[in-house]
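Supplementary Methods, section 5.1.

A reviewer requested that the exact input to the structure prediction be made available. We therefore reproduce it here, unchanged from the version used in the analyses.
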Amino acid sequence: MAKTTAETSPFSGFARLGEFVALDFETTGLNPKEDTIIEVGAVRYRAGQEVERFSTLVNPERKLSLEIAQLTGIQPEELKSAPNLTSVANKLYAFLGNSPIMAHNADFERKFLQSIFGEDYLPKMMDSCHLLAYVYPFAPTLSLEYFIRQFGIRDHEHHRGLQDALDMVEVVRHLDVALNEASFAEPCAIIEHYFEKTEVWGWKPLFVGRFPENEAVYNGDLPALRNFRSQFAEEERPALEARLSTAPMRLSESEFFKSEYKQYQLRDSQQKLAQKAAQILNDGGVYVAEAGTGTGKTLAYLTATLASLSTTNESPVVVSTHTKALQNQFLEQELPRLQRLFKVPELKAVVLKGMNNYACLKKIREIMPLFDGYMYADNEKELYSAAFLTRWMLATNEGEIEELPRPLHEFPVIQAVARDARADYRDCNRHECNFFEQCLFFRKQWEAASAHILAVNHSLLLTYPKSYPEFDRLVVDEADEIVQESIEAFSDTAAHSTMFDFHRFMSGSDGVLEKVAGEVRLVARAASQSPQTATKKRTSWDDIAVGDMQLMLERFSQSLARLNMVMGLIRGEEFFVIQATLEDQRISPTSRQQIIAETENLRIICTDIINSGEKFLKAALGLISSVEEVPSVKELQSRLKDAASIHETLKMFLEQDTDKAALYLRIDRNDWAFVATPYNIGERFAEAILKPRYAAVFTSATISNTRDMSDFLRGIGTHTLEHQTSTSRFKSPFDYKKHSKIVFLKNFVPNNHFDFARLSAEFILNAAETLGGRTLVLFTSKERQRKVHDILFPMLREQGMELISHGITQSSQHKCVEQFKFSKKAVLMGARGLWKGVDIPGDDLQCLVLEKMPYAVPNPFTKGLQELLVKQYQDDALERGETPDLKRCSQMAWNDVDKPLMFQAFRQMFGRLIRTETDKGIMFVLDSQLQGSTLSPRHKQLLELLPDVPYGLATPEQALRELSFLR
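The structure derived from this sequence is encoded token-by-token as follows.
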């Protein structure tokens, strides 16, 4: 987004908005039925000029929460002398009058206004959220703060009534100037088209008449979308010059790289990693490289990729990452730099995602209210929806449903698009579709066919569709996450949502069955009247009746509903995900019996549906010449495959063959599923990912949990491969011995002690006071995070410091980190979401506090795998003629399964502390479960995997004195 200044412009629509009141409330919470207003800020504008203001604090006559006090800066003592809402209401009503009300996320203000003045109070609202979403449909957020920063107005949002109202108007002024850019001619034309006959949308004056010479930019014809097939389908992958084969070796030329990397330094480990990766990508095999923080692994594997692409151009190289942040880093920063450095503008990279991520234009066209009846109706929401979706479809590069801004989901049409317009291979007619040439999903496929690098996430890599471009070389970054992703990807799952959707798509008058039956009858009737086909033997129309199958689907739905009730009882009020086998104590004997009975019932019904469906398909195909005549037949075939998959998972769950897979229920707040996770994940990974490939490179800062990387290698199944696997470990170039320290607290109360939260809060407070904030606290439990938060918040506030708590004061991890960096004195707290991928370099972060050692949380898969290994170790002992030692066998199994997970988590946590070579930091482990003055063998083994970091044991008082090390 281009930054602008609110100066006089060739065309200004702001003054044409007429009279309005900019309004902002600060409240005790988000629910107008339970919460109340604590501050009102309102400003009247007329013809673009401020006329008058109304601003006051409001006594809520209740306790103000710590979070709201922290967010707004309003203190409870300020509100005690403020007027109450009753005395403010009449003055506010008089000030607002009949003027339109402008607000950011206006539905929030409207609901609070109605809580004061009654449900019949229906003022005309102008939501700046809707305006910004239309003009900038791909903004990462629609928050007022984001646009305040983007337009250069200020670097933060005040969260105070009057100032936020003024800032909102200032954002609109800047947007008014920005709209004069030629690139906005089409969006303006779209608004003129949809709102031509009505004035219901208050923002219309900003767009109308701005580009009078471009009246025909948009004519209302949706199929006139860009033709992506003609744009991309014929492109060939450009050959890269042979000179790029030396790209990894050029890492030794610091002056060459400094033109793009100002802080570039020669690093022997980076050069070795790049050269070895290039060799593997050229000669074949598997290479696993652990590269410590600061090695520069991204640049290393990208130069290796360049070298490989210069050697052969037959297929692209796939680069897989776990986080979107890293994907964006190498696509938006590293690749453009390399293109400029090596003078290869033709180098092309494309991000690929699963088909279900992309919007289906055909489905959107069916949902959008584009017929003439709506063109003259004063229905603001539907007109805006049509305008916004048209704007989005003509502008999107990615075409992903997730691009649609969430605040717009209040619009029924956009909500329907977000819910129902995902592309799906089961109902995709491809070449038969009227939108095939403009398809957002196939655009990616056509574009990817000529790309040198395909960027995917681990999840897509593990389920890579056959229709996507073939590849034989693979680079996996953040490889430490790939094994856990494999466990999810290779599990057989029958989820309630999947089974519910299967029933919804199949049954009813608009379901697949009726669709196929109706279309087949039409084709067959036309064919029977043709002399060429009249003598052809055809199946009776009676054979494609759907009544019996509809009854089966109804039985399926009823059984699923009964099962859903049982799962709801097990879930109860539990917030976290429940993973439980049938023998779990959380499942009562009665519930267990009901689950088994209904699961068996579902399995039997699935069998009946599959058998009847196959007969139905056979009869339908007997009435038509080819499947292409009735595209919906393909959808039915796909839906029956879904039924077969559901049947197989239910069958596995009922058989309870626990020697091959972990069989359990997974229940969360929104869904539940039967899950069968095979124990041979490594073999599955090798079979699906490695064996079909010529070369694969894996890299991360925390791959190994042992000196020889055996845990990771077993997890990706390299022992099943014929070609060679090589490994390397490159230490971080940072001076950890000089710049970091780890202190384990001894004799600290355990985390289940009643006083743990208070003592932890006091320790964090003392550390933060010494450092002036600059502290990150990581938790293994959300519940303990909440307890510590509630105690620590007022303590820090009293000392003039801020507490930013992920999931409590702020839901966005990115916003938490940015707020922490911006704040002068702050403590940042969070659980698993902050363990990895958080980058806070420099003095902003100097202290890391771990609430406890990150022991792996037991789950049915790890428990089942350990039990299997215990049996194996016992059998091995018997074969050697020894008496099995159960305790020793259990310890060995724990070492193989849970210990690697704990070690990896600890290393990821420590990795947040030192991000550059000049960073200094100290790490405290509160609940280290250490008594006395020596480390346990487990702790010592863990520390051996870290860089050369000094460590020690100390009481809380001694530990705090160690902070002097940072001065």
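The radius of gyration is 31 Å. These observations are discussed further in the main text.
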